[in-house]
Amino acid sequence: MLRIVLGVVAGFIAAIWPVFGANQKAFEAAVKNGGEYTADTTMLLTHLVLGSVVSAMAGIFAALIARENTSAPLVVGILLLVLGLLKAFMSWRYAPIWYHVIFTAILLPMAVVGGKLITTT
Fold first, then answer.
1. Model confidence over 47-100: pLDDT tens digits?
2. Predicted TM-score (pTM) of this structure
3. Nearest Cα to Cα of residue 64 among 25, 3, 2, 121
């Protein structure tokens, strides 16, 4: 329950944080139009935290809906990993390699961990 509350709080702060929104728009414009973009380390770290929280929440929801905490979170984690790899491929030149490696590496394990937080009967 605490993780869900923290996830909601982090998501809400990210949604209303003006710097985060402006940074995200600049990144999206650079990817769409092929322009220049310089990644901000604070924003990258924020993305890593949010990616962790969202992946864990996805595992939690998968386990709750499927009523089992092994296969469903694993499949969700694999899907997140595939999308994360696609995101890394599309944004490779806009962020440092450490960010891409860490971001893609956390998606699957955090979904599995999120699923394990749910006790199924």
1. 899 899 989 999 998 998 888 888 899 999 999 999 999 989 988 888 899 999
2. 0.74
3. 121
**42-78 burial string, b = 16+ CB within 10 Å, else e?**
ebbebbbebbbbbbbbbbbbbbeebeebeebbbebbe
d(CA 13, CA 31): 24
Residue 19 structure tokens: 């710097």
Exposure on the CB side of residue 65, measured as CA atoms within 13 A: 9
Half-sphere exposure in the Cβ direction for 81 (13 Å, CA): 15
d(CA 92, CA 90): 6
> What is the average pLDDT score of the chain?
83
Q: What is the pLDDT of residue 91?
A: 81
Rounded to a whole number, what is the distance in angstroms from the first to the last CA of the chain? Answer: 18
Residue 103, H or E segment: helix 97-116
